[in-house]
Amino acid sequence: MIFTFDFQKRIRRYGGIWGGVAIAFMTYFILVKGAKGAIFFTEDQVKWIQHNAGLILLASFLFGGIVIQFLVLFTKVNVFKPIVLFGTFALALAFAANDLVNFIGVPLAGFSSYLIANVSEDPFNLFMRALLEPVHTPTMFLLAAGVVMTITLWVSKKARTVTKTEVNLGRQADGFERFESSALSRSIVRMALVVSDFFKRILPASFLSFLQRRFDLDAFKGEKKKGKDPQAFDLLRASVNLLVASMLISFATSLKLPLSTTYVTFMVAMGTSLSDKSWGRESAVYRINGVMTVVGGWFFTAFMAFTLAGIFATVIFFGGIYAIIGLVALAVFIIFHTHGIHKKNAKASEALEMSFIEDTSSSKEIVQRNIKEVETLLSSVRDNLSGCYDAFYEGNRNKLKKNLKESKKVNKQSNLIISNIFKEVRTLRDDESKLERRYGKEVASLREITGSLRNLNQLVFDHIDNNHSTPSKEQVEELKKVNKLINSQIKNTLDFFKSEKDKKAADVEEVRMEFSEALQKFDKNQVQRIKKQNDSARNSLLYLDVLSNTENISTSIYNLFSALRKNLEEIK
């Protein structure tokens, strides 16, 4: 509210004050709150620091404020960068002070127990009262722990995923949403809108207008460097995130309160995202569901840890050394297995995000890229449709359930292409916008393809899930022909995009006509079977629904092909 999104002008007025406040608070928590446990301070030095805390705070504020204001007035340095750098250092110290206990507390207690037992005459009947005394951790242990933690943060893909999730949920711009909406997130958003409308009615119009001017999102200009991802949010918010998170963690650690550093940092980032209007009506349900998923995962982890600790303790008590060996082997297997799952999920997510085009792409590049994405989508549609048909013949519920989940992923691919189409429209020049490109037809076709595919999967799964009969022999033969024809249509469409030859376009037309004739014939065949009462009403209804949804997919694929063909002709 003070700086606005166009904060470059206001840095000259308030930059020194904000920089002084940020550096003063971070210095306080680094020096005053952190000095007590530091091994490189003597006892007298710690007492002096704590006795002169107010003086240190004032000196830090004045020195930091003067330096920052000098940089603002007389240099071209972006003053938020030194604040963010200092804040990163403060947050790293806050993390280390808190997480170090979690990291080396248990092995250090084990090592101390070994040393105590080693000098005892009767270690098996020894009470470990010595562990109640204050712990003096050897410097080498601290250095080794720091090295391990640093290397882990640098090379761990899971650590990068955590950071990526946090940045993705808090980013300022629209883009690929990693999470779906849920009933709870939709309810929360509706409730927030009701509260918002209430305050809009009771607050003065002049004040609301003032707020609107201060939070003008059009002033946000995310930096984009070549070869790097666009800036998710500005350095002002980054400095606030680091300051608040490091203060909370340091303060709680000084009071010996148990807390999750990751949780605090994550929720601070989500709080500033909400107050920065990053969660608009277009993204709020997805972002809120993402936060609930992450936080719910932590609580579920705590419950699982509590439960498994009890189970493992019981197993070790009765199984002894054999149980320990078995549990270690199980732990190794789970680590490798979850690593594989994470790698697979990260790869799939990255593939989707890589498809999201940049605003800097040219119109021609975007059209060509959209066609590449449509090729990938149609391949996924073909595989999913074939999988649904095959599982339907067999009456395989598990395959149908898996296929239903895959159809939702195909829907995500479609939504991403649609987002890119809107970006394509925004990048058009005035002369290009007058060309006859069929964007509306493209979007409608994509939505119809994935909507019909998901509906088809749902209908077949519900039918088999309710233990109804599989299709008859005649129906299976006809469905196999339908599947073969739509696969040919997709193949010919893909071949056209690769070669852009008129002959391939003619092949698409030919298969489409053949497909239409086959559907008419199979529809009549089913009517005859109904008249002869060869099939149950439920089975007949499902069969007709399958044909109808498949026809919708086929028609929409042809409409999509026509629209993209038109766009290709225009960019030439």
Could you explain the architecture of this structure?
This protein has about 575 residues and is mainly α. It has two domains: about 10-130 and about 135-175 and about 230-280, no CATH class; about 355-570, Methane Monooxygenase Hydroxylase, Chain G, domain 1 (Up-down Bundle). Helix content is about 80%, strand content about 0%. The protein contains 18 helices and no strands. It has helices spanning about 10-30, 45-50, 55-75, 80-120, 140-155, 155-170, 185-200, 205-215, 235-255, 260-275, 285-355, 365-395, 395-425, 430-435, 440-465, 475-500, 500-530, 535-570. The longest helix is centred in the middle third of the chain and has 71 residues, at about 285-355. The two termini are about 50 Å apart. The relative contact order is 0.06. The mean pLDDT is about 80.
Short description:
By secondary structure, this protein is mainly alpha-helical. It has helices at residues 8-32, 43-51, 53-74, 80-118, 139-155, 157-170, 183-202, 205-214, 235-254, 261-275, 284-354, 363-394, 397-427, 430-433, 439-465, 473-499, 502-531, 537-571.
